[in-house]
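Predict structure. Input: Amino acid permease, 481 residues.
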Amino acid sequence: MSRDDTSLAKNVLGVPGIVFLVLAAVAPLTGMIVIAAIGIAVGNGGGMVAAFLLATVVLLLFAVGYAQMSRVLTSAGGFYAFVVKGLGRTPGLVAGFVAMLGYNCFVAGAIGTSGFFTSTAIDDVFGVKLDWLFWSALSVALVLLLSRRGIAVSAKVLGVSLILEVAILLIMDFSVLFRHGFSFAAFSPSVVFQGAGGLALLFAANAFIGFEATALFGEEAKDPKRTIPRATYIAIGFIGVFAAFTTWAVVSAIGAEQAQDVAAAHLSSGDLVLSVAQEYLGGPLTKVMLLLLVVSLFAALLALHNSATRYLYALGRVGVLPRLLGKTSPRNGAPRYASIVQLVFGSLVALAFRLAGLDPVADLTASMTGFGTLGILTLQLFAAVAILVYFRRTRDRRLVKTLIAPGLGAVGLGLIVTLAILNFPTLAGSSNGVVPHLPWLLLVVALAGLALAGWLRRFRPSVYAALETDMEREPSNVVGQ
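Output follows.
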């Protein structure tokens, strides 16, 4: 079996491992407490249940073409590799830059979110009050230790945390179902079409951020041409059904017709779901839920770090970024330096916000996670277009799988990205400072990618050519444990 110091581990992730990595990045508990609650308040109230189902349909349509592309291409470059394959090297490099900045900003925001909520939960449950930066630093140290143990270890840790956070929400859901019953008024036209349906769809799509990471682990997967498509369908289906079911429970508990008003009253405190838990689970289990929120946020940080690291690794491996970032551990195939660089970047951003006296949620999380979300949504749209172009260029005759379904998915993603740009302060949860202007950073990133592509084509043609030839790397070339 071949070995080199630029290869990832071989055959270490099955469908469950990849699903755990993806769902942990999605962070179901965090998604319900934060994203679903905001969607109910600023979107269409009780109609948020239908918004989750619509977002699921859009992404499953996209996943049809995505699954076919996954059978053609296996690469740690994820969607950046898909764009190279479908649209060419220059658009691919632009997508790579968007992915790299989007994921790294998301991790920086997650560092602040994890530190803040951990500080709040520990203080509330145990009465120990420490600065959020301490908990952020501890989270970063633990992420570094786990990521350097290899992706298989991360998958196991994330699997445990995922089971725990899903379990506590399901206990709450069924408590509402058995004690109160679910209200079908949530599906009545008067509820579904009230308020801002576009914002509801935007926040519903936001709850899926992270599913696209399945492609990033292709080189580390067992039988990736089957594992990656299956993991993608399972991840999207689970997120959509679980989010809709839990949101239905919350909406039923507070009343579908007045859900928007009730959620709006809880918006500033962010405790809508916790208030429902208090009523239907009681004080002790609500405290457990609060502690599991900390676990959920840490799991999301670890999973997002693994995703961000693989974009740095992929761009380092081909020579776009320093090749040192493309080095891996000969022992377990974990990216050695990309992991450190990624966490240093996120930590320095968080530290800068702290030294400036800015709020970890209203400023750090809002700006970094907000832009990260927009970047990843844009990346998904790039990939959707690339998949369509690739299969039309190769004259694929499976029109339903490679044109109609993914085409409808691309239209849906285009609508979501447009909504994200037009409503960015609402998506980010803040209109402070430069936050409303952050979408312009996408244009800056795109121009930087175009400029670098032109420079590489002229002065470093071998690196420019490697953007495409590296996409041909097969899983058989990657190192074993």
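The domain at 3-472 is CATH 1.20.1740.10 (Amino acid/polyamine transporter I).
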